[in-house]
Amino acid sequence: MHLTQAALRTTAIYVVFAALWIIFSDHFLEALAPSESVAPLQTTKGLLFVLITAVLLFSLIKSQMRSTFSSEAQLRAVFESIAEGLIILDEYQNVVHLNDAALSLLGVDPAEKSKLLRPLQEIARDFDLRETTGRPAEEQQYTAKALSGTTIRNKELVLHRSNGTAVHLEISVNPIVRRDSHVIGAAIVIRDVTEMNRLQKLRDEFLATAAHEFKTPLAVIKANAQILRTSAAKWPEEKRNLCLTMIDRQCQKTNRLIQDLLIGSRLDRHSPDISKTEFDLVDLTNNVVEGLQQLSARHRITLKQPPANTFTRVEGDRERIEQVLVNLIENAIKYSPAGGEINVTLYREGPRIWTAIQDSGIGIAKEKQQHVFEKYYSAHSGTPHDYGGLGIGLSLSKESILRHGGAIEFESKEKVGSTFRFALPVAHEVRNERSA
Amino acid sequence: MNEARDYILVIEDDPNLLLTIRMILEDAGYHVMTAMNGLEGLGIASSGLPKLIVLDMKMPVMDGWEFARHFYETHGRSTPILVLTAAEDARQRAAEIQAPAFLGKPFDVDEFLALIAKTSSNF
């Protein structure tokens, strides 16, 4: 209902009843009482009237205030508790409210809040807000539009904070429209989308890399299939079988790639339980090293074992630990020049057995080291040493080791090399009295 | 010492693809030398220039871009390079090193051989 209309109606009803009361009560009194006592009676009647209207006024105001305070309390609770930043402007573009989320997004101390209750124009000067293109953003352009009744939705802007960081913000500006259709201000909603953008970018890169990875096995399969159909007709059986073997192996490789993709996306949601068996870590490492050495004649992989009577059995998922070893040694091979040495050392330290894999390869840049175990992160992507791959090997390895109650760490220096090492708890020695 | 200009140098880090390409080229009558990264490729080329280089771009130790840079510096532009790449835009990759020919993976064997013949005869 129109504001004035509602007020008018209530007032009109009051006026009518009050007038009727006054008119009829006077006549009523005259008819009822003797003329000498009319005057004091009229005064009493008048005072009674005042009393009644005062009570009415009092309860009316009180109930209105109560409902205003309740609405205010609800709004305040919402305002302060939501995660998005909220800034309320009045119709003259003065900032009248800001919530704590807005303050933290803008990088302002909550204690300094009152300093921001100024015209938007003035505040905007203190903040380096830009369009995604890099051009400075014209904040007032958006707020002015909103104040004229248009809602601005999901505008992406970048805030460059004084400490050098850049925050990606998604901003919406909504006009605040009173029931009488009067625009009394604007509400600015700010969301931090930096992390979401980063994850989306990682995902896109991951998919592009994955697609890229399939092309080489496909090239081998296609070429060999074509060869077999045409020129290989005159080849000896041995040579033709080689083509068939290559096709088969590349299909297996493609399948493994697909598995990796699936594991990559499953890592967060569901970690399968590890099956536990007891096995000798030195034996396993020996096997892995032998197998990988064959694959890369260009590198020398050496294995240094602990002294002969050391207890080196562990309890865990043999296949997973094997995967970790293969991952780490393959990485060492991949990122080392041909002819490099890769040293694998096993040693006991208290209740744990450590495996260290050292290479003299290209190393990992210092600023990238903190991300090395992240899912999809590839320390060398986009560099001359981008060898492709899905970037999930190390994050899978870390996950596996941690689930075994172990630890994994590394040191690396660019152009010098890297050493990755992991520890596993030794199997309960109590059951094996004969070993040291 | 390789006899100059009578062989094709194939530089590709995937050993299976490398072997497949060798088979295709040898069957078509070419002499072939292979390398698994740019550094090895430079080594082979320095003891006798090939008549054509088939070059993969993404390789460890030394990639296609760096190989091209070093190769041009040492030997000039006399040897044509055919860029073989899994990248979406093979043409772009070739343009980046001013290579006269390019082919995407996976490729058609006949197309590959036709391109080899055309590229080596044009130079």
Task: Give your account of this protein's structure.
- The complex is a heterodimer of chains A (about 425) and B (about 120).
- Chain A contains ten helices and 13 strands.
- Chain A is of the alpha+beta class.
- In chain A, α1 (about 5-30) packs antiparallel against α2 (about 40-80), α8 (about 280-295) packs parallel to α9 and α9 runs antiparallel to α10.
- Chain A is elongated and about 140 Å long.
- With about 120 residues, chain B is of the alpha/beta class.
- The model of chain B has no long low-confidence stretch (mean pLDDT about 90).
- Classes of the chains: A alpha+beta (about 425), B alpha/beta (about 120).
- At the A-B interface, α6 and α7 of A face α1 and α5 of B.
Give the fraction of residues assigned to helices of chain B: 40-55%
Assign an overall shape of chain A: elongated
Order of helices and strands of chain A: HHEEHHEHEEEHHEHEEHEEHEE
Instruction: Using the coordinates above, name the CATH class of chain B.
Output: Alpha Beta
What attributes characterize this protein structure?
heterodimer, A: 436 residues, alpha+beta, Beta-Lactamase, Helix Hairpins, 6-stranded antiparallel sheet, 5-stranded mixed sheet, 10 helices, B: 123 residues, alpha/beta, Rossmann fold, 5-stranded parallel sheet, 5 helices, 20% strand
What can be said about this structure in brief?
The complex is a heterodimer of chains A (about 425) and B (about 120). Chain A is of the alpha+beta class and about 425 residues long.
Tell me the layout of helices and strands.
The complex is a heterodimer of chains A (436) and B (123).
Chain A (H helix, E strand, L loop, with lengths): L2 H30 L5 H44 L3 E6 L4 E4 L1 H7 L13 H7 L1 E4 L7 H9 L4 E9 L5 E12 L5 E10 L1 H36 L7 H30 L10 E4 H15 L4 E5 L8 E4 L1 H17 L6 E9 L2 E8 L33 H11 L3 E7 L3 E9 L11
Parallel strand pairs in A: 8-10
Antiparallel strand pairs in A: 1-2, 1-6, 3-4, 4-5, 5-6, 7-9, 10-11, 11-13, 12-13
Helix pairs in contact in A: 1-2, 6-7, 8-9, 9-10
Chain B lengths: L6 E5 L3 H13 L3 E5 L2 H9 L5 E5 L7 H12 L5 E5 L4 H7 L4 E4 L4 H14 L1
Parallel strand pairs in B: 1-2, 1-3, 3-4, 4-5
